[in-house]
Amino acid sequence: MTKHSGRCLCGAVHFEIGAEPMMAGFCCCLSCQKLSGAGHAFHAMVPETGFQISGETRGYEWKADSGNVVTTSFCPVCGTPVSGRSSGFPGMVTFRVAALDDPSVFAPQMAVFAKRLQPWDLLGPALPRFPEMPPASQ
Predict the structure, then answer these.
(1) In whole angstroms, what is the distance from residue 129 CA to residue 37 CA?
(2) Computed over its alpha carbons, how large is the radius of gyration of the chain?
(3) Is 34 helix (H, G, I), strand (E, B) or coil?
(4) Rounded distance, CA 138 to CA 126, Å?
(5) pLDDT class for 138, splitting at 50, 70, 90?
């Protein structure tokens, strides 16, 4: 696997991905809408061992629609959300695909929490959609 790097808007936080994502998708939950300022956020998930981050981050923790406790880490200087963890996926970390230096290297495989999809957020019609979080085997 080729390593990929990313950073926050101001460059104070850098991260490197050294593992192939186990999934990459849009999340349309209301929390991700608020965090992204858009109709969805684009996350990919890798094992913790395949994710390295440098620079100071701050975290915000909340209970997600799924019932899991989610923590989003962001740059305290510019506010860019960079990564996250969920109690539903121990040992895994998500990262914001848009924060990659080359976000075109990963394509979304699905949209989750599509029941919250805004009518003006036009996702590709062929993209599989799940009303909530699908089972991990999908």
Answers:
(1) 21
(2) 14
(3) helix
(4) 16
(5) very low
Residue 9's alpha-carbon distances to 67, 78, 98, in angstroms, are: 30, 6, 10
Pick from 91, 138, 131, 102: nearest CA to 4: 102
Q: Provide the 8-state DSSP code for 87.
A: T
The residue type at 130: F
Kindly report, residue by residue over 10-66, the tens digit of the pLDDT.
999 999 999 999 999 999 999 999 999 999 999 999 999 999 999 999 999 999 877
One CATH from 2.170.150.70, 3.40.50.620, 1.25.40.20, 3.30.70.420 for 4-116: 2.170.150.70
Q: What is the pLDDT of residues 88-130, one digit of tens each?
A: 999 999 999 999 999 999 999 999 999 999 999 999 999 999 9
Report the C-alpha gap between 97 and 108 in whole angstroms: 9
User: What backbone torsions phi and psi does residue 76 show, to the nearest 5 degrees?
Assistant: -75, -10
What is the pTM assigned to this prediction?
A: 0.90
